[in-house]
Amino acid sequence: MIDEAQRPNAAVTFSVITLGVMAYTLLQSLVVPVLHTFQVDLHTSQTNVTWVLTVYLLSASIFTPIMGRIGDAAGKKKVFVLSLAALAAGCLLAALATSLPVMIIARAVQGVGGGVLPLAFGIIRDEFPKERVAGAVGVIAAMSAVGGGAGIVLAGPIVDGLNYHWLFWVPMVMALLSAGAALLFVPESPRLPGRISLLPGLLLSAWLVALLVPLSEASEWGWASGRTIGLLVAAVVLAGSWVVSEQRASMPLIDLTMMRRRGVWTANLVALLLGVGMYAAFGFVPQFVQTPSSAGYGFGMDITQSGLILLPLTAGTFLTGSVAAPLAERLGGRIVLFVGSLLGLGGVAMLAWTHDEQWELYVATGLFGLGLGLAYATMSSLVVRAVPAEQTGVASGMNANIRTIGGSIGSAVMASIVTAKLQPSGLPKESGYTVGFAVLVGAMLVAALVALLVPRDEADEPEVILRHAELGLVAAGTLVGDESE
């Protein structure tokens, strides 16, 4: 932590890292409403074009924790710029792609940019005044969800006004501007000395690939197929090997002792479940409203109109994400996380059972967005406060990564349910969407219950504040977690 008198303008640093985070999060969803356009233009099938999404999730899931850990050891500023450079390179390649294999490679390179999230959290923790850490982390966390919703809203106007190539030109420019500004204005953070073990990184990559590929492809392969079951079994074996390698490594990629802290594992489990709901909603609400009314449901909307259905989600996420920190200071992080999960549950319940009118969908997505903003901002702050400063990058990186894994699970399960029964026209039956969204209701209910397991705030206990002050765990007047947990 640098001396307060020499600290650069925190507002400038915050603006720079926010721009980089937005460039990354936009790419999570810009392609979702226009997959059919990719399918036609790249001359491929509906099955193959889904890899445009799958490869991105795989790459981001692998590189988010790795880049966060490298940033802790090599310097967060340098690795933040490197992540943005990879993001920009992937965007350039995607914008110029004329075939599916090139597009898939480009999306894999873009996934390296997942490192911007844990690195942004780490920079905030290292460089901001203690009293501003919780609020800044909360806003960045909320922006990760806002960017996802904004991508779906903006995709239609960009494609209609220009073409789909601009879905990548715009984030590329944002990434380059953020990288250049980071070099000029963001200070280098303290480093955690030591070498990163190679084997845990390889095993982490292997088990994530073995897990996410069958979850993404199970609707096509079949949940009982040999490929699906074989890869899931391999994922379990590789994950066990990864745990053993991490425990034996002198400088582990992920400190599993840290991950067992009550304040960390509860927030991570909530992140997983919220990721299930958020990504499934992003992927299937547009499909639902784009369905022609002749199917007995849906509204026959175009890309732009379907994106606007999720505009309340984006606005609600930003609104509550911006006020989550002061609410947590007054009410406690556990209560805010619980309320956020309940609001999200209410929104998904409306999607499942009250979706006959357009206004009902606007209310449902808005309610869901309000809940996501509260929950994402709060659980990120909980994780940051629950670990020592030198572990901020990897801890927050795993939280973001677990959310991505949850998104892959939610999208795969939702796809399997929605496409299980088709009408003679080939369109899904309405009951598929109803059952699918009802499953998401269950996930949100479990998230709310897990939120109640988060450790109570300890801000009113002076001896606890004194014991943890040197680690910088006091933020916005609230202390969450305890070393003994």
UniProtKB/TrEMBL annotation:
<feature type="transmembrane region" description="Helical">
    <location>
        <begin position="265"/>
        <end position="289"/>
    </location>
</feature>
<protein>
    <submittedName>
        <fullName>MFS transporter</fullName>
    </submittedName>
</protein>
<dbReference type="GO" id="GO:0005886">
    <property type="term" value="C:plasma membrane"/>
</dbReference>
<feature type="transmembrane region" description="Helical">
    <location>
        <begin position="12"/>
        <end position="36"/>
    </location>
</feature>
<feature type="transmembrane region" description="Helical">
    <location>
        <begin position="309"/>
        <end position="328"/>
    </location>
</feature>
<feature type="transmembrane region" description="Helical">
    <location>
        <begin position="198"/>
        <end position="215"/>
    </location>
</feature>
<dbReference type="InterPro" id="IPR011701">
    <property type="entry name" value="MFS"/>
</dbReference>
<feature type="transmembrane region" description="Helical">
    <location>
        <begin position="335"/>
        <end position="353"/>
    </location>
</feature>
<feature type="transmembrane region" description="Helical">
    <location>
        <begin position="48"/>
        <end position="67"/>
    </location>
</feature>
<keyword id="KW-0813">Transport</keyword>
<feature type="transmembrane region" description="Helical">
    <location>
        <begin position="104"/>
        <end position="124"/>
    </location>
</feature>
<keyword id="KW-1133">Transmembrane helix</keyword>
<feature type="transmembrane region" description="Helical">
    <location>
        <begin position="79"/>
        <end position="98"/>
    </location>
</feature>
<feature type="transmembrane region" description="Helical">
    <location>
        <begin position="164"/>
        <end position="186"/>
    </location>
</feature>
<dbReference type="InterPro" id="IPR020846">
    <property type="entry name" value="MFS_dom"/>
</dbReference>
<keyword id="KW-0812">Transmembrane</keyword>
<feature type="transmembrane region" description="Helical">
    <location>
        <begin position="400"/>
        <end position="420"/>
    </location>
</feature>
<dbReference type="GO" id="GO:0022857">
    <property type="term" value="F:transmembrane transporter activity"/>
</dbReference>
<feature type="transmembrane region" description="Helical">
    <location>
        <begin position="359"/>
        <end position="379"/>
    </location>
</feature>
<feature type="transmembrane region" description="Helical">
    <location>
        <begin position="136"/>
        <end position="158"/>
    </location>
</feature>
<dbReference type="Pfam" id="PF07690">
    <property type="entry name" value="MFS_1"/>
</dbReference>
<feature type="domain" description="Major facilitator superfamily (MFS) profile">
    <location>
        <begin position="13"/>
        <end position="459"/>
    </location>
</feature>
<keyword id="KW-0472">Membrane</keyword>
<feature type="transmembrane region" description="Helical">
    <location>
        <begin position="221"/>
        <end position="244"/>
    </location>
</feature>
<dbReference type="InterPro" id="IPR036259">
    <property type="entry name" value="MFS_trans_sf"/>
</dbReference>
<feature type="transmembrane region" description="Helical">
    <location>
        <begin position="432"/>
        <end position="454"/>
    </location>
</feature>
